[in-house]
Amino acid sequence: MTAAQPAPRTPFRAAVVGTGGIVTGCHLPALREHADRVRLVAAVDVDPGRLAAFRDRAGGAVAGYQDLDRMLADERPDLVLIGTPPALHTAQTRAALHAGAWVLCEKPLCLSLTEYDRIAEAERSTEGPYASVVFQHRYGSGAAHARELLRGGELGRPLVAHCQTTWYRDADYYAVPWRGRWSTEGGGPTVGHGIHQMDLLLHLLGDWSEVRAMAGRLVHDIESEDVSTALVRFANGAMATVVNSVLSPDEVSRIRVDCADATVELTHLYGHGNDDWRYTPAPHVRDEAGRATRWRAPAADLPSSHAAQLGGFLDALEKGERPPGSGPDARRTLEFLAALYKSAFTGRPVAAGEIVPGDPYYRTPHGDHPDWAPNAPKEQ
């Protein structure tokens, strides 16, 4: 694909699709933080009351629409931020791309590798706009610093890692009709919650090569899982454990990577700053050359956030370059999720690159497995 051309106008014209909590609470503040570079011109929502409340909160001349195609035709935005339920993401992303708008979409970008490849086809056919997925935990000074140290070999060779998203969600949470269903959410805590930490793990350690997983429906009466675990081998030889849960009263999000010369650990819940990262030197490490001193968090503290990611997205838009969190980078995380589900449901290891067209897990995360596909008997 040829490089996209920079958008011809600044501040860029932005539109939001969906005006619920994630857009109001995260995307709107992010847009305000970058008000010198981007201006919100339109909002789309099928609920007129919710749309009106959002427009009042957004202030300014934000046009309201109940139809996405009409908004795209009337407003011609440079970028579209999507915060609707997951089942709508693929169609809305493709519509925005075909209208010439770049896209920053909430996770998951889509529900399957089939859908992802349809988005990639839309990118190729438009030869310009790109679609990126919101993975705000990659961003911020602490994450950037850790990745630089790991990728540069400063901590020694990565050996053992742990990725934990142990949260708690009650029955009321799953009373929302689209949650816990394969066709509308795409899975349980694996895709709806743990996806952020797993993406960050891949962002830090690079390509994965093999997954061995388990999943269970232990508490909630839903189609998808409410807990999953995995063992992962990375291309660099490192091995990791992954735990995703919505059954855990003591909630925590954690990434830990043990390297030959140090351990780096991040402990937080929904976002992190520099102080949430900790570096522990191995006993043999001496600091005569100031090596361990370089591990300290940078002086500037930019927390992970939608605003931090939007800043990088706007940088790419200004240059006409593919933004981070898009293309093969986004597909790698989605393929990892598909492999986790396939391994969990088939009981065998899954290798990177194994899930291709014709594989049932390429088309849908449950792979039509009789114990997990919709309308199949639930586990007792």
Describe this structure as you would to a colleague.
The chain is an alpha/beta fold and 380 residues long. It has 12 helices and 14 strands. Helix 6 (141-151) packs across helix 8.
- What series of H and E elements makes up the topology? EHEHEHEHEHEHEHHEEEEEEHHHEH
What's the CATH H-level homologous superfamily of the largest domain?
Answer: Dihydrodipicolinate Reductase, domain 2
Give the fraction of residues assigned to helices.
25-40%
- Numbering strands along the chain, what is their spatial order in the largest sheet? 13-12-11-7-10-9-8-14
Q: How would you describe the shape? A: globular
| Class from helix and strand fractions | alpha/beta
CATH architecture of the largest domain: 2-Layer Sandwich
What's the domain count? 2
**Through-space gap between termini:** 49 Å
- CATH class of the largest domain, please? Alpha Beta
- The number of helical segments is 12
CATH topology of the largest domain: Dihydrodipicolinate Reductase, domain 2
Low-confidence stretches: none
Number of DSSP E strands: 14
Mean pLDDT: 94
Gyration radius over CA: 21 Å
Please describe the biggest sheet, giving its number of strands, its sense, and whether it closes into a barrel. 8 strands, mixed
The proportion of residues in beta strands is: 15-25%
Domain Gfo/Idh/MocA-like oxidoreductase N-terminal: 12-127
InterPro entries: Gfo/Idh/MocA-like_OxRdtase_N (IPR000683), Gfo/Idh/MocA_Oxidoreductase (IPR052515), GFO_IDH_MocA-like_dom (IPR055170), NAD(P)-bd_dom_sf (IPR036291)
Region (Disordered): 354-380
Protein name: Gfo/Idh/MocA family oxidoreductase
